[in-house]
Amino acid sequence: MERLGMPLYYLHIKEGAELLLDPEGANFRNLDTARTEAIQSARELISQAVLTGSPLRMHRAFQIDDAHGRTLLSVPFTDAIHSGDKL
Known about the structure:
alpha+beta, 5-stranded antiparallel β-sheet, 2 helices, globular
C-alpha cells in the first residue's frame, strides 16, 4: 500500500533457490531509493558477518518486489562492495 504517495517495496533476500521473504515491506520514494536501501542493508549484513566470523555468503541478492508481487530488480550483495553509491 502506498503511504503518503510513496510506493511499497519488499526487499526479499535470495540465496540460491531459497527466498527469505520481507513480510512487511517499506515505503520508498522510488525504485532507486529502494536499491540504495538494499545496498546499505547488504553492507550491514556483510559487516555483521565479518564481526562475528560468520561466512560472508556473498552469493546472496536482494530481490526487490512491488506491492503486486512483481520482481522489479535484483541487487547482488557484491554490489554493496563494488557500488559507487555514497551512502
